[in-house]
Design a protein that fits this description.
- The chain is α/β, with parallel strands linked by helices.
- It has a domain of 150 residues.
- Helices cover 39% and strands 13% of the residues.
- The protein contains 9 helices and 7 strands; from the N terminus they run ααβαααβββαβαββαα.
- The strands form 2 sheets. It has a 4-stranded parallel sheet, sandwiched between helices. Strands 2-3-4 form a 3-stranded antiparallel sheet.
- Strand 3 and strand 4 form a beta hairpin.
- Helix 3 packs across helix 8.
- The chain is globular and about 45 Å long.
- The two termini are 24 Å apart.
- This is Putative acetyl transferase.
- Pfam families: DUF1919 (PF08942).
- It comes from Croceitalea dokdonensis DOKDO 023.
- InterPro entries: CAC2185-like_sf, DUF1919.
Length: 228
């Protein structure tokens, strides 16, 4: 049986989908901070740039990180961003498909799942990283994490302890320790048995139900919407 909440989510998603051009245009007009940098562990971040129709000024596009590598990257972000990108043939993670380019920055892996070859991945990573590094003010960087592919509850807590101004996390479960508006607890539909967040693209399509992304980019504040 479909619950009231399930029906509400379904209808709101369909409205956003049907009137996509209107909503995209409205939010493009509402954005005044266009110098932001999204650092995302999956395709959630790329969806923001696409919706707002602005260039990717971040290399974190069309790829994903496993939890341990992503946390290691964030905890020493500036150093890793200064490391040259190389490639390996096989991932250290057993469930990796290994049918796309796998980059490495020293000891962390980057899974370029939406790239056809290493040359393309290297070229776009380097070009977009150079564009990102032009923005030296970390207050214009926006960091995202969700509990997929080895991201633990402890990682979510550590993530919110990082010295970055703008952060948001998504999980099916509450965060360990002190609550924060920057942690989004995803509602599950009545027939949903998952124990972790959906993939980045699907997650972004649901984000409007939880907080105003444009307000976040403009002010750095998480303004909750329907679900809290």
């Amino acid at each position: 049986m479909v619950g009231i909440v399930d029906l509400e989510v379904f209808l709101k998603r369909k409205i956003r989908q049907y009137f996509k051009v209107y909503f995209d245009s409205r939010e493009q007009r509402s954005l005044f901070n266009k110098d932001f940098v999204i650092v995302s562990r999956n395709c959630w971040g790329s969806q923001i740039y696409q919706q707002l129709n602005i260039p990717y000024n971040t290399p974190f596009i069309g790829l994903f990180f496993y939890g341990p590598c992503y946390m290691k990257l964030l905890k020493d972000f500036d150093r890793y961003m200064g490391v040259d990108l190389n490639f390996i043939p096989v991932s250290k993670y057993k469930d990796a498909k290994n049918d796309y380019p796998i980059g490495v920055l020293d000891d962390i892996e980057i899974h370029f799942q939406h790239y056809s070859n290493e040359d393309e991945a290297r070229s776009k990573w380097n070009r977009r990283k150079k564009r990102m590094l032009l923005q030296q003010n970390k207050n214009h960087y926006f960091f995202m994490i969700c509990d997929r592919r080895g991201v633990t509850s402890e990682d979510l807590t550590d993530f919110h302890g990082l010295p970055f101004k703008n952060k948001v996390s998504f999980s099916i479960n509450p965060m360990l320790g002190e609550k924060t508006e920057e942690h989004i607890i995803l509602r599950q539909q009545s027939n949903d048995k998952r124990t972790f967040a959906v993939n980045g693209k699907k997650l972004y399509k649901l984000t409007f139900l939880y907080f105003d992304v444009i307000q976040w980019l403009n002010t750095g504040k998480i303004q909750r919407t329907r679900f809290k």
